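hiii so um. not sure if this is the right channel but i have a protein structure encoded as tokens and i wanna go backwards to a sequence. like what aa goes where. can anyone help
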């Protein structure tokens, strides 16, 4: 059996990981790393041209065009996927996910209401339906 403190720490770590991955908790972006006393920070370049990046690649026009085309395809795919999700979420009738969620929540609400009414009145759910139909005049009083 784990100690409560270890379990709490584990859940805190899990919550932070989930929060960071979902974008709910963002690490500060404007914080510069501290320079230790024995290190010296490299001076910031005055212009972009003064900065020499050994890993920097120069790409020819064909490669840039291919990358641009691939990124445009990917952006179009994501845009279509986002629009489909928004459209599916906006449908409230038919066999859509949102309609089924509303249907399920409504059913759960009325089941709980029927059970509570049965507890307080002693009438079963079918008897409650018959009482409702008699009260509204759908079926006769006999």
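sure thing!! here u go:
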């Amino acid at each position: 059996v784990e100690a409560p403190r270890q379990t709490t720490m584990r859940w805190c770590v899990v919550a932070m990981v989930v929060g960071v991955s979902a974008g709910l908790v963002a690490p500060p972006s404007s914080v510069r790393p501290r320079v230790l006393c024995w290190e010296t920070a490299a001076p910031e370049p005055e212009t972009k041209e003064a900065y020499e990046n050994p890993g920097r690649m120069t790409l020819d026009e064909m490669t840039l065009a291919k990358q641009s085309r691939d990124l445009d395809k990917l952006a179009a795919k994501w845009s279509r996927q986002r629009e489909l999700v928004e459209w599916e979420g906006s449908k409230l009738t038919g066999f859509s996910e949102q309609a089924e969620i509303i249907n399920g929540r409504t059913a759960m609400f009325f089941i709980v209401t029927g059970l509570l009414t049965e507890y307080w009145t002693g009438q079963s759910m079918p008897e409650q339906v018959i009482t409702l139909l008699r009260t509204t005049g759908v079926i006769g009083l006999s």
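oh and The CA atoms of residues 80 and 86 lie 10 Å apart.
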